[in-house]
Amino acid sequence: MVVLSGAHTVGRSFCTSFLSRIYNGSTPIVDSGLRPAYATLLRALCPSNANSSTPTTTAIDPSTPAVLDNNYYKLLGLNLGLFFSDNQLRVNATLNASVNSFASNETDWKQKFAAAMVKMGNIGVLTGTQGEIRLNCSIVNNRSSSAAGVQAARYAGATASLDEIASRL
Predict the structure, then answer these.
(1) pLDDT above 50: residue 76
(2) Which of 12, 85, 102, 118 has the smallest number of CB atoms closer than 10 Å to its CB?
(3) Cα–Cα distance for residue pair 21/14, rounded to 1 Å
């Protein structure tokens, strides 16, 4: 899992995926694994009442969001992991050893990442009604085609970025 979590070095996330790290209801908080300045920036992007209709997104890796590199692992040590799961890699001593190794050796991480992706690619593909391609990986698709269309439209929404701001942290 530590190897595949490195995929968080590219891509964007909706506010709802990390809202509980920056708010308790409507009260601003700072998750213990999150740098306070980063939490402040995330709150500036995401209102406490963000929901699945809120189109705002942010880079998962604020330093190099469009580059497949090991900066994700370097950010974890700086308390700049966006997701709760990112922080769990850092606080578990066994997992953190791999995090530190990948942070210091990009080549090793890329080789292991490629091998893990190939291995995942060899998992039997479900076809027809045996499986589904989810519009949101954490939510089972609604079987209604109109709901799927609404869900897909949400992904076309406006975005907000931490890219420039994160360079100042």
Answers:
(1) yes
(2) 118
(3) 13
